[in-house]
Amino acid sequence: MTTSYIDNNDVKNNVVIRDSYLSKDEDYSFQYLRRPVIFTKYDVFADLDLNDVEFSNESQKEFFDNIMDDLRTKISQLLLELDFSQSLLKPKVINDSDGAVVLNWVSSNYRAYINIETEIENSFFGIVFQDQEQNFQSVSGKIDNQNYSQVIGKIMRRLLNYI
Amino acid sequence: MDEVRYPDTYFRGISNKDFVVQNRVIAAAFQFDEKIRKDGFKELSINWNDSDDALKTILNQRKTNGKLQFSVGAAKLDLNLTKIVFSPYIDRNEFNYERSPIDGNQFHGNLLIKGTLDKRIRLSLSSTLAFIADVNILYQEDFKIED
Fold first, then answer.
1. Do residue A128 and residue B127 have CB atoms under 8 angstroms apart?
2. Crossing angle of helices A148-161 and A58-81, rounded to 10°
3. What are phi and psi of B90, to 5 degrees?
4. Tens digit of each residue's pLDDT (9 = 90 or more) over A101-130
5. Residue A3: is its pLDDT beyond 50?
């Protein structure tokens, strides 16, 4: 017989997982930097393997391409801004069981992902990380054709802060 | 009623090499079943680490075609950390766990999440589990780790 049990008495309440949309008051502006070139050494997409990734429809592929273009631009700008003192880990792209295309960044400090769903309006992103007190935190929200550039800027900035 | 006891750690089998990136397990290895049970929960199969045989059992589990079910290996997770991190979900009865022995695997159990949670929350939970596991992966002997 399947039994279910959980002991709430020994669960501490000092850890919070938050689900929230990105705050809108942060500076996403990168307008002063206009050199969207990533030098080969820093091009985390140079050997990105998409051979096994399947796109369900044209709009999903188009949205993926837009996101990749924006990622390259943002990364090149951030690298210039940070004087190449940082480097981003390479992302991994896979399909999930629903046909979504998922961009993953994985490190000892965070897990970040952008889920590009077959219906673009259902797409979302998320970051799971540990704060300075080692508490686990999460941030997630919608990503679509209107906000993707802002969202990507926020994600990249946050990831670089955790390297 | 007898209290069900649990060990400090549990294993989650890894069936696909794409579920390990830079030697770290990713959320895709922790996808909950689509099916919603009568009690409203979705399952994620695990093996409770009751003894050395628990790991052996999961690593030797085979598909009907005779191939290894978990060709990469198994991630090892800490139960207490899981309970701490998921405490808000536990408090809302949206996360739970259980023993659920099956034929040939007395160590089998499930992590459970409420079926009403949408995909965005489910993936957040799966990513958190991957983060908890991180590099704690017990690989199959013949699995070649890629850089």
1. yes
2. 40
3. -65, -45
4. 999 999 888 999 999 999 999 999 999 998
5. no
